[in-house]
Amino acid sequence: MIDTKKLHRFDMAEYLETEEDIAYYLEATALEDISLLPAALGTVARARGMSDLARTTGLSRETLYKTLSTGGNPTLSTLSKILEAYGVRISLAPQDNPVAAS
User: Fold this and answer.
1) Contact 78/72 with Cβ under 8 angstroms?
2) Do residues 29 and 43 touch, judged by C-beta distance below 8 A?
3) H helices of the chain, where?
4) Is 75 helix (H, G, I), strand (E, B) or coil?
5) d(CA 63, CA 58)
6) In this predicted structure, which of 2-16, 20-34, 67-81 has the lowest mean pLDDT?
7) Radius of gyration of the CA atoms of the chain, in A
8) What is the pLDDT of residue 4?
9) Any residues with CB less than 8 A from the CB of 86 and at least 6 apart, and which?
10) What pLDDT score does 71 carry?
11) What is the rounded CA–CA span in Å between residue 90 and residue 79?
């Protein structure tokens, strides 16, 4: 039996120490499942400070908490402001196996 008194809840925010860490984390998340990107940005915001992000982007903390929660659905404009604040940009590339448009 596992002694739960010795287990600690894993929090990715504790490991995002550098800009490079943040960029790799966001890239890996987006490649795995783009719908998880808002929540991943929320993790970065917790690591760096939500107040700092609000100041940098001009968005309210309330908007950021709502947008960057699990299930958050940011507009492209909001997403762009947040990514810019972290020195990250979205890059598009052709897929290896593209799905034909109907």
Assistant:
1) no
2) no
3) 19-32, 37-48, 50-57, 61-67, 76-85
4) coil
5) 10
6) 2-16
7) 16
8) 67
9) 19, 22, 23, 26, 41, 44, 48
10) 83
11) 10
Measured CA to CA, the distance from residue 26 to residue 32 in angstroms comes to 10
Q: Which amino acid is at 76?
A: L
Of 51, 41, 46, nearest to 87 by C-alpha is: 41
Contacts of 91 (CB under 8 A, 6+ apart): none
pLDDT over 90 (residue 101): no
Which token pair is 14? 């504790």
Residue 98 DSSP code: P
The CA-atom distances, in angstroms, between 50 and each of 44, 46, 60 are 9, 6, 9
**For residue 28, what pLDDT is reported?**
96
